[in-house]
């Protein structure tokens, strides 16, 4: 069977139960075609690869409960709004690709947000990216902060959906890919974030309207991580991105300059990452400072791969690559390659 449409979930279950040696399952549901007709459950011990696209933003009840009873599954590609409850049995899972959307965005209590580009990508807590230039006035910063606050709801209690059991159920994987929205969903699971002892490769995509708030915790809870892959470095600036990046809003930076704090140990300095793969690099100030932060703290780094999103025949491409090559590196064994 290559493809089949299910008029109701009873037909779906009847077919799945009639395929005792099924190894590859792909389910694609979205409200542009049909109303919800999937029960949210996959119970099949033979499945090894599974891809699910379940997207019904206008049907909240279609995302009530999700059950994955697939003990031999090795690869999961799952795109959906976060369900209210997950029950998963994924003991053999090796690789997961998640695109999870929260029903509500992060609230202001979870971190001040600053969407501007280079002007708000300021000093990092470890001091590796110190820059005393400050071009924005207090009034401009206050106006930005006020505008940003209005875009957020008031209480984390309003968050709909709970991915805690799903995150716990994939804690033994070796490779994890996360979308920008998934980073925020993982942030809501931070209080019960499991250890990812077997995780060797972490890959995530950035978006200028989504933060890196959970990245420091993910790195800390992945003690054997060897490869870090990031598609795009520009992300939403918040107060609590932690020390995985140097994006401290200038309003906070001014306070920091008035009273010097004791520098904490950067989470990157305890990270065992050997390979850093960055794509979509344009050579902006923000991106250069982020690369400077990585190179100054990743002590085990051996290979840095940078995909430059500029015309190689233009001068700005050469300036961007030369600037990266001149950045100091804490690892004397690291080598930078461009693609």
Concise structural overview:
Residues 266-339 form the FBD domain. With 339 residues, the protein is an alpha/beta fold.
List the defining traits of the structure above.
339 residues, alpha/beta, Leucine-rich repeat, LRR (right-handed beta-alpha superhelix), three-stranded parallel sheet, 8 helices, 22% helix, FBD, FBL60-like
Summarize the structure in words.
The radius of gyration is 22 Å and the shape is elongated. The chain has eight helices and 15 strands. The longest helix is centred in the C-terminal third of the chain and has 13 residues, at 285-297. It is of the alpha/beta class and 339 residues long. The model is unreliable at 107-113, 119-123, 131-157 and 253-260 (pLDDT under 50). Helix 5 links the parallel strand 10 and strand 11. It has two domains: 1-93, no CATH class; 109-338, Leucine-rich repeat, LRR (right-handed beta-alpha superhelix), CATH 3.80.10. The strands form three sheets. Strands 1-3-5-7-9-10-11-13-14-15 form a ten-stranded parallel sheet. Strands 2-4-6 form a three-stranded parallel sheet. The chain has a two-stranded antiparallel ribbon with strand order 8-12. The two termini are 40 Å apart.
Structural class: alpha/beta
Cα-based radius of gyration, to the nearest Å: 22 Å
Note the run of SSEs as H and E.
HEEEEEEEEHHEHEHEEHEHEHE
- Tell me, briefly, the overall form: elongated
Low-confidence stretches: 107-113, 119-123, 131-157, 253-260
Which topology of the largest domain does CATH recognise? Answer: Leucine-rich repeat, LRR (right-handed beta-alpha superhelix)
Largest sheet descriptor:
10 strands, parallel
> What is the averaged pLDDT score?
81
Terminal-residue CA separation: 40 Å
**What is the name of the CATH architecture of the largest domain?**
Alpha-Beta Horseshoe
Helix-residue proportion: 10-25%
Q: In CATH's first tier, which class of the largest domain applies?
A: Alpha Beta
In which order are the strands of the major sheet placed? 1-3-5-7-9-10-11-13-14-15
Quick one: how many beta strands?
A: 15
Organism: Noccaea caerulescens (Alpine penny-cress)
InterPro entries: FBD, FBL60-like
Protein name: Putative F-box protein
């Amino acid at each position: 069977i290559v493809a089949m449409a299910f008029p109701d979930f009873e037909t779906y279950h009847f077919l799945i139960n009639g395929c005792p040696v099924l190894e590859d399952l792909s389910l694609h549901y979205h409200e542009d075609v049909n109303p919800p007709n999937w029960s949210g459950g996959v119970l099949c011990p033979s499945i090894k690869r599974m891809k699910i696209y379940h997207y019904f933003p206008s049907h909240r009840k279609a995302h009530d409960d999700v059950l994955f009873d697939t003990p031999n599954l090795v690869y999961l590609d799952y795109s959906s709004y976060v369900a209210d409850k997950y029950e998963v049995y994924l003991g053999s899972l090796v690789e997961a690709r998640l695109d999870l959307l929260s029903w509500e965005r992060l609230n202001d209590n979870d971190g001040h947000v600053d969407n501007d580009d280079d002007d708000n990508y300021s000093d990092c807590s470890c001091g590796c990216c110190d820059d005393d230039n400050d071009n924005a006035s207090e009034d401009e910063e206050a106006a930005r902060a006020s505008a940003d606050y209005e875009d957020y709801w008031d209480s984390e209690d309003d968050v709909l959906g709970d991915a805690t059991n799903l995150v716990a159920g994939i804690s033994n994987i070796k490779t994890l890919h996360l979308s920008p929205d998934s980073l925020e969903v993982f942030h809501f699971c931070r209080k019960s974030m499991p250890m990812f002892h077997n995780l060797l490769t972490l890959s995530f995509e950035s978006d200028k309207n989504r933060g890196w708030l959970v990245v420091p915790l993910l790195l800390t809870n992945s003690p054997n991580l060897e490869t870090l892959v990031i598609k795009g470095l520009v992300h939403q600036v918040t107060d609590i991105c932690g020390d995985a990046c140097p994006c401290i809003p200038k309003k906070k930076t001014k306070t920091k300059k008035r009273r010097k704090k004791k520098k904490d140990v950067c989470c990157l300095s305890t990270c065992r990452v050997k390979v850093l793969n960055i794509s979509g690099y344009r050579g902006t100030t923000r991106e250069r400072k982020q690369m400077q932060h990585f190179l100054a703290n990743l002590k085990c780094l051996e290979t840095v791969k940078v995909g430059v999103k500029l015309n190689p025949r233009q001068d700005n491409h050469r300036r961007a690559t030369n600037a990266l090559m001149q950045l100091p590196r804490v690892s004397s064994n690291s080598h930078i390659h461009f693609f």
